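Cross-check.
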Amino acid sequence: MQSIPFIQYLFPNGRKTLIAIERPDDIVKKADAIFRQGFRFEIENNGQFIHMTVSDDYGDYDARICDNGPPVVDNVDNMIIEFDIAKAIKQRERNMN
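Predicted model, tokenized:
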């Protein structure tokens, strides 16, 4: 297993910190492909719920919300597996104009 970096926004003031979530190699490989296209993973934790996104400076391209705890890793995996890189690149091009 390897880790995937996420920018975590901490409540109440939105301070940023870098965290890593350990995932299987196939998930990390897809995450790396997403990173290579200039996207990043962000996460917010209010204690009860987790909100995670695939983002860049022009917008959010996927978002998931789940309970804090065991559901987080399944949601990380699903968000990465289901992320359509080509579709997000097209959306980014629209966002830039």
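The first helix runs from residue 25 to 36. The chain has one domain: 2-96. Passed to J.P. for a second look.
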